[in-house]
């Protein structure tokens, strides 16, 4: 019968929790659905379940419990997978939770070095897999990362400045961190009005708010722009419809 001391129990639990938190920090930094706390709790939960079986002294029990943990994480991962039109979102998040549970299982079984290697592998996939996938699929970079945050930029400008403003938006959204999916122009039908309204749908990676604020600050300096603001667009299908003023967003007027 295998005995498990309190110190060994705490060490394995700490390693499992810490490795899950390390994975979660990267997810939190990129503003994903499942961040630090979620991945840390999943890893800690998997560790605790396997540790319970080890402490019970049944030789074959840890393996059986680990198989049950795999099934349970499958149900948890199914809750974060969402269908968005023809696209499916959340697969990366579900896979990450699955890997966090596996790291917890390794830590609980006493394979601390293997748990460290597994954590480094998961982080390497997230950090290196994204640019590699975009390099391979360079014609459609937005489809590779399902967790990109959709946001909408709305502004009112003079009609004669429209082409210049559109060119600025395209120029500032040419990188991988901010992807332009479309621009819609609406003419102001008010009498004697020479203004147009532009709505741009953007996909952003990571800290969407700070990057959008930089773009809004740059556009607000243009003399031809009267008003510019942004807001998150949780439903991309209606993202390019002209919204009502949103106090939750950010605005700048000149």
Characteristics of this structure?
254 residues; alpha+beta; Alpha-Beta Plaits; 2 domains; 5-stranded antiparallel sheet; two-stranded antiparallel ribbon; 7 helices; 51% helix; disordered C terminus
Describe the secondary-structure layout.
Blueprint lengths: L5 H24 L6 H21 L4 H18 L3 E3 L2 E3 L1 H18 L3 H25 L12 E10 L3 H11 L5 E10 L7 E10 L3 H13 L4 E8 L17 E4 L1
Antiparallel strand pairs: 1-2, 3-5, 3-6, 4-5, 6-7
Subcellular location: Cell membrane
Protein name: MgtC/SapB family protein
Membrane topology: Multi-pass membrane protein
Task: Give a count of the beta strands, DSSP E runs of length 2 or more.
Answer: 7
Distance between the termini: 76 Å
Helix content bin: 40-55%
Spatial arrangement of strands, main beta sheet? 4-5-3-6-7
Average pLDDT confidence is: 77
């Amino acid at each position: 019968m295998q005995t498990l001391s309190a110190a060994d129990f705490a060490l394995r639990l700490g390693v499992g929790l810490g490795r899950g938190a390390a994975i979660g920090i990267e997810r939190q930094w990129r503003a994903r659905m499942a961040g630090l706390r979620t991945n840390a709790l999943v890893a800690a939960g998997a560790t605790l379940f396997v540790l319970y079986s080890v402490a019970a002294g049944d030789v074959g029990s840890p393996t059986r419990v680990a198989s049950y943990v795999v099934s349970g994480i499958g149900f948890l991962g199914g809750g974060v997978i969402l269908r968005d039109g023809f696209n499916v979102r959340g697969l990366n998040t579900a896979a990450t939770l699955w890997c966090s549970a596996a790291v917890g299982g390794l830590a609980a079984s006493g394979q601390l070095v293997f748990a460290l290697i597994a954590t480094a592998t998961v982080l390497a996939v997230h950090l290196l897999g994204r640019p590699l996938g975009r390099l391979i699929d360079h014609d459609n970079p937005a489809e590779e990362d399902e967790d990109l945050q959709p946001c909408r930029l709305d502004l009112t400008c003079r009609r004669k400045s429209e082409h210049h403003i559109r060119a600025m938006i395209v120029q500032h959204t040419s990188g991988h961190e901010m992807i332009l999916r479309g621009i819609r122009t609406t003419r102001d039908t008010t009498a004697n009005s020479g203004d147009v309204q532009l709505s741009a749908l953007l996909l952003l990676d990571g800290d969407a708010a700070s990057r959008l604020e930089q773009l809004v600050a740059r556009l607000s300096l243009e003399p031809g722009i009267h008003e510019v603001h942004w807001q998150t667009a949780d439903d991309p299908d209606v993202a390019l419809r002209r919204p009502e003023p949103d106090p939750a967003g950010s605005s700048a007027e000149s």
